[in-house]
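Hi both,

Apologies for the delay on this - the queue was longer than expected. I finally got the adenosine-5'-triphosphate-bound model through. Below you'll find the protein sequence and the ligand SMILES exactly as submitted, and right after that the structure tokens for the full complex including the ligand.
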Amino acid sequence: MVSMNLIDDLIPPQWRGTYTLFKKELFRFWRVAFQTVASPVLTSLLYLLIFSHVLENHVQVYKGVPYKAFLIPGLIMMSLLQNAFANSSSSLVQSKIMGSIVFVLLTPLSYLQFFIAFLAAAIIRGFLVGISIYLVAIWFVDLTIVHPLWIFTFALLGSALLGTFGIIAGIWSDKFDQMAAFQNFVIMPLTFLSGVFYSIHSLPPFWQTVSKFNPFFYMIDGFRYGFFGQSDISPWLSLVVVFSFLLALAWAALKMLKSGYKLRG
Amino acid sequence: MTQMMADKVLAPAIKIERIHKRFGDLHALKGIDLTIQQGEFFGLLGPNGAGKSTLINILAGLLKPTHGKVSIMGHDVMDDYQAARLSLGVVPQELVFDPFFNVREMLRFQAGYFGRGRENDAWVDEVIENLGLTDKAHTNMRKLSGGMKRRALIAQALVHKPPVIVLDEPTAGVDVELRQMLWAFIKKLNADGHTIILTTHYLEEAETLCERVAMMKQGEIVALDTTANLLSKLPGKNLRLNLGEASLPPALLPMLKSGENGVYTLALTELNQVEFALSALREAKINVEDMQLIEADLEDVFMSLVGGKNGQYESN
Ligand SMILES: Nc1ncnc2c1ncn2[C@@H]1O[C@H](COP(=O)(O)OP(=O)(O)OP(=O)(O)O)[C@@H](O)[C@H]1O
Ligand SMILES: [Mg+2]
């Protein structure tokens, strides 16, 4: 608590509102960390144990990279993305349903500040889950890190992209099951079909082409490049694609927030 | 002092100009004009569905007006929303709360959204104490009783010391103790210069607290005056009769305002109607056990203007 106060004092007054909302969003998921952090970590480890055990001797994707090692960056990124999405979307839907969203709407916080605070909290949750999985996984598997900066860049852009998508889904959804539909019919299929468990080079040409329309493919491929220095396509191309998607979604989210869509009648 | 600042000092606390609000086909507000000066204690009254909360939500920026302009302390709620919202504290009518935090945490967060830092904590504690929440400061919002949640909701509107405070039915569902505590606190805030706008269905509350009231009906203001003027406009008095077992003679039924358990209240427009009432009772050979002549109250004014025949209005 003392260290928290120290940080509080460092924040310039004009940023206090944004910072407070960010901090509240952090506390919100941290209070239920068992469900918001520990549980996705456990799920990923189960994937790791099962898939790596079943496929270890059948699949080799990149030269000199055991399948177990290949799998980990994909699983980290998958959880990071899902949790960034879950954080902003469920917080928004819940506070809309509870009505407590008014406490934020009554304040002088601008739509941009609102966006920044929710986004930053989503990114932190994504990172926290991602790093936890990494720290547990390296007990089981030898994992290289060739280009840490690429890892960081794709983790940041990916969590920002999904955090933004979560804001859009959270504003649009009036009920939990609508938000769950985003999760089950958009995010899950796209992550599973993005090359978490395989390289797209192992797919038939048609499915390779389809994968290239999936933004999740670029996030995971670029992220994986940071670990192995090998990837299906150039990380620079992935960077451009992911960044463009982020800009497009951020534009949409900000437009919704600015208009007060579903928030201010 | 610059001219601009001088204007703000003189600006009305709230200025509402030709506000219309439509929800689809429903014309919920039909051109409201209302100016409330700084330092007023103002009552906004009206039956369910009159449009009070809609008007408040427009002040708060939670709803956009279909037409018209609103400013708070001289700041337009749309064009200059940040300054407007810094000046305004709103207690919403619905009992909403954030289930993740305890009372003190939640209040500190709320102050933080308004840019207040730790220097504000003493004020937060003062609000907590004045609303009788000290024992509950560390209780999770979820675990509070309804009345305690209402207190926390009121506290939340006050954390940033807004010059204008709007309370949308703050006393719904709270016990007598809190009502007194709350009104003492709100009166103190008013005495310190805060402008208070209150909606309530307890008309006695409005009568004792508010210097001026507006009565709304179906999206329009049907009366706007000082409480004293409104009361004096209604020359009538009430005659309360206790008839024991007997029931009211039919001749007196047109004057009947309310009646239960043998106690009937008759509305009088002129004093000589007392004569008429008594003679009617004598003719019917009814023994009057007790009798009182009572001044008209705000409820009578309200009934005469808003027409409460359909029983929409409650009083306690
Ligand atoms: N979001 C909304 N969508 C559609 N209609 C609405 C909405 N909010 C309010 N209304 C309608 O507008 C009218 C005014 O409602 P409002 O809540 O302002 O009344 P009120 O005076 O506050 O009543 P009460 O005393 O019951 O709180 C009502 O007919 C209500 O049904
Ligand atoms: Mg209302």
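Main takeaway for now: The two ends of chain B are 49 Å apart (CA to CA).

I'll put the files on the shared drive as well.

H.
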